[in-house]
Fold these 2 entries.
Entry 1:
Amino acid sequence: MLRVLTVLALLLPLPGLGADRPACDLPPELLHPEPLPAAAAAIAHGHLHILAIGSASVLGAGGTSPAAAWPERLRAVIAARRPNLDVTVEVRGGRGLSATDQRHLLNLALGNGRIDLVIWQAGATEAVRGLPVDGLTDVLTPALQQLRARDVDAIVMDLQFSRFLRANADVEPYREALRIAAAAAGVPLFPRYELMNHWADADSVDVERAARDARPAEVDRLNGCIADALAAFIREGVREARRPPP
Amino acid sequence: MAMDALVRQGRDLRVDLFRGLALWAIFVNHIPGNWMGFVTPRNYVLADATETFVLLAGYAAGIAYGRIMDRQGWFFAASRVMGRAFTLYVAHIFLLVVFAAQVGYSAAALDSGAYLDELHLDPFTQAPYRALLEALLLRYQPSFLNILPLYIVLLAMFALALPLLRRPWLMLALSYGFYAVVRQTDWSLPAWTGEDWFFNPLAWQALFFTGCALGYVPRGGKPVALGFRWWLAAGCIVLLIAGAAASIILYFRWDIAEERLPQAVASYLAGIDKTAMHPMRLASMLALTYLVAHAVPREAGWLRSRPAWPWVLMGQQALPVFCTGIVLSFLGRMALEMSDRWPTQLGVNLVGPVVLTAVAMLTAWYGVEKKASRTASPLPSPAGADTG
């Protein structure tokens, strides 16, 4: 099933792809999609309203324009595949926001109208500032459980892989906390850290090794890869939700 | 001098050995991306090197300062404890300066500020004087520099509680009572960021005072000990197996966790925090200690064997080895920042333990030489105490 997904991902056009560099693939062992019933039901009704919530990366920090940020790219990827689907991606967040701040933004956004799927990019601010790890889980787990209770699907997105971050911030406890919080709420985790690490190792996309003037283009390329991977991840989750129970 | 001669005999070498292993694991775990991180105990025990370090630090403090108190009184012993805390404080500030230099250097080298949320990684660039003040007040603890502040506060608490060593069960009752209150109320020490300390000393004290109670040997008496009971040992084994299964599934077989692990189990695991020493972590550490203490006899021959001595030696020279380990972990992280392929991995994991052992040897040799020159001189030698 995930092999098919990988093949599909490889077939997707990747803008800005250099001829000599490998495409950013999706190793099946990294992705464990889970059923996304609310998204599946919404798509059946012809719409999909996504809320992307997070810190700097949701706004496309470091890229060429806000339109190159991964939430907007995700919308474009889904819209291209499903021209008849009314797909929207709303973005809430900002640099340096903690999970507590993000939860507040989430509650505000939920009050504004129907949302089918929340993609929550969490933990970066906590890791960078060295905040207590339990603060992150204490906020995330109940908030995710609340989303499920309201029939809103959620995906937790973890930290960015960066050699700089890894050398200067204690990333592991926060990665673990995100994984466990997602499992506790029965919500899938989108392993951005591992994917980016894999792409960097394969030289598909590596922002930190790009020359300084090529950096914004490389960040765009990264956002494109993230958007494609997310689209595939969501597609698989929707497919699993539609599968009749055994 | 023969290397074995550097190992101080006449003490519980099991404690030294495990302390040495904990110091090595702290070095490894302070390098995210280090492949050795997959073999350190945190992957299969719900307690890791930090817990071991704190428990055994309490044990060493109980032995050394308990003895000083019995000989020279509480006030003198408490002064010695505070002297030790001050040494740790100075060491912490030194490490902080090294850390600030490292962050500054690698930020300049990689210029990743543009797309990362690194704004607060280095408060020295934003508010240097405030950062310095907050660091001196221990209210600003950068990543990887949160164990020594914990240890400093624990020692300060210990200085006050010293006389309770003579009534260990009362000390433990007070300590665990306070721990229960702290767990209920979420009391902690405030940090500059508006949140709490990464490790809450008010909760971690339970483990430290357990170590103190186990370590203290009253004059003419016997230390607190729990004899071997098969049902207790069986309970400990069950607890550790359950913890190991949960950890392994969570760290290595994520797919099983998602497909088969009941959500209630995952929910429970999500609540196991290290910040305020969740009871499961405390219980795992105590169970591990109980089992190891009964499984490894104090006189086990292999504790004196050649493969064991580097670890025993590291454990005996805990403070310099700990600080060197932290500095080495900075260098290791820088090396892996440049390249994280196998040559660097191999280099980091060879150089690290070798340097740590060398530092332990040097410190031990210095201690032996100092003692020798003191015995040779006519001056009376003060009662020596080493805790680390």
Note: Chain A is about 50% helix and 10% strand.
Entry 2:
Amino acid sequence: MKARIKITLKNGVLDPQGKAIEGAVKGLGISGVGDVRQGKYIEVDLAEEDPGRAKVIVEQMCKDLLANTVIENYSYEIG
Amino acid sequence: MLRAAVIVFPGSNCDRDVKTAITRVTGFAPKMVWHGDASVPSSDMIVLPGGFSYGDYLRCGAMAAHSPIMKDVIAKAKAGTPVIGICNGFQILCESGLLPGALMRNASLHFICRDVYLKVENDQSFFTKCYRAGEVIKIPIAHGEGNYFADKDTLDRIEGEGRVAFRYSDIDGNVSAATCPNGAQRNIAGITNETGRVLGMMPHPERLYEAALGGTDGRRVFESALLSVLEAA
């Protein structure tokens, strides 16, 4: 199975990189661009075949390492 | 006698600087301990040095916080062994949960390497007792991720408990957004844990410990540690 994990900054946490990207996108002359927030995308191959047990494993890796829950949220799909 | 241990991670680059600073200031050479070791030798203090452990992959300090040695560092810190984390070491302390909050990308997105003024807030702790609260000192910073963040409740608690050790200020001790180089909340440059025995700070005291280096304002961090150990003996 494969876990596809997205990590994003929590609302209210300033994202200067997102702001810089926003400025650059607007600099392309593209109109209608609002707030830009950047995050991380991580793919993990799992030997586990049971979705329930895979979820437990992914939760643990997200909480303990992949995301810093002081500043970041995470979400994932397993399949 | 001061028995210090400096943890060396892959990518640490201030480990030998801090070893020299501790040796010159206190007269006692620290042991250098590889991050892959299982335990830290019995020590009066542990240093997590500056640098770019694991190339700052994932988040600064995130990988180092899970190095084999950190299980023992965390256990010893919780049992009362003093720990100082400088720059990357501060990031590792936050990532390992020994200190609250997180260190984010500087608000300017620039890596900043220059001397800054700090207002001393806490002059009672293991590593700060040779300073005087309210005095202004000058110590260099060199980081891209020193923008201290914690939620409001955490910040209020840290401040209420007197755990802010240093704040970014101007030469007169004024603390404002204009005197904050990296966007850190409430100008926080260094904090301690509940007991005051774990200190994390972004500025580099090991870079200014004798006049030949351009200043001596950093040396009292190490003098404080020595004094603390001698007082407890």
Note: The first strand of chain A starts at residue 2 and ends at 9.
